[in-house]
Amino acid sequence: MFKFISAVKKEYLLLLRDKAGIIILFIMPMMLIVIMSLLQEVGWNAIAKEPKVEVLFVNNDGDSLGINMEEGLRSSGFFDVIDSVDHASVTAESARAAVKKGDYLIAIVVPKGVTKSMRANVRIAVAKTLSGFGMFNPMLLNNIAQKGADTVTLYFDPTIRKAFKNAVVSSIKEFNYRSETGMVFRSFNSEI
Amino acid sequence: MAERPIIEIKNLSKRYKGSDEPALKDITLDIYPHEIFGLLGPNGAGKTTTISILCGLFAPTGGEIMIDGFNLHNELDQIKQVIGVVPQDVALYPTLTALENLVFFGNMYGLKGKSLKDLIMDRMNVFGLERFAKKKISSFSGGMKRRVNLIAGLLHDPKILFLDEPTAGIDVQSKIVILEFLHEINRKGTTIIYTSHYMEEAENLCSRVSIMDRGTIVSTGNPKELVADHPEFKNLENLFLHLTGKGLRD
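Structure tokens for the assembled complex are given below, as produced in the milestone run.
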């Protein structure tokens, strides 16, 4: 036991005076732990705190569909909706150019009058349905002409993943359907 | 010599793994108490191998060795109590002080406390090192390291001392101090077995020498008598060259 204690004491003195040895024995593992922790934190953040996707949003509609769509995108938590760059409102052309340049991955352009157009189409559809039941109201079609399909335009960066692209397209379609359905219900409600 | 040998070597042989030639071939040798016995030979003759086997560092391939009545094969622990070893390379910890090194080696021999420290300081005083007791070995000259190395092998007052080229590569002053000390401890009863390349040193120091070459002993005897038996050679070095040849060795 005495020899063992003596050997331990000697090793302690040797280690204490061997700076390179101390670095290898203690500091290097500590550095390894710190580096591994930082790397794992990066990985964890990538999973736990998914970064938001910046979306250029051009709302030329200014009516319910454009407003609902913008609110829906903002409240989803997945998108950072950007409607102005460098203190200038984003236009359809600048949004397209920005995506083409690769500054942004997605741009959504809601054309002017899309809600109005949708509303007119809904009224026509409701009037047709009611006329089938002998409840046609000519007032319903006052000053209304069926409009061509004004559609929301989406621009995607070619590098974007297909699954993500499909998810965005589905979300936009859902906004459309939801708004359209709401209009149909409101229209029926007011006529019946 | 009527006395019983303190070291008896019978038919000792050693072959290293992967080596074509054996390092030792059938060596038989007796070393008597109170002798200063020299193992002389060119590089690769087998001197260090012989000493390493006698100290228990290497196992022999064949043969039998008795040291102070103990069989090396199965009584190595008892043998370690009676021998001291001073290896060819300085076996000290360079980052420890001379005192710390010697205290550690003393502890390994079972020595401790104030008596050990007094002994160390006494030995350091003999070797002119007392002022350097608390200096790190790394700051020592080659001669100083050799002297500390020698003290480390002698702390437990061994009955038999093995020295492997103790004076190689050191200054004359250190060499004189070491050789005088070896004479002194030999007078007090320590048997010394040492290897050297220095013929003149061996001639003056040793009571008997064995000249080794290529793993065998080519001649054994008192150095002066060996020279006298060969009057054509004026000293041990000439005889040595005659026996081992002038060819370079690896």
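Chain B touches chain A through ten residues (CB under 8 Å). Residues 172-187 of chain B form the longest helix (16 residues). Further analysis is deferred to the final report.
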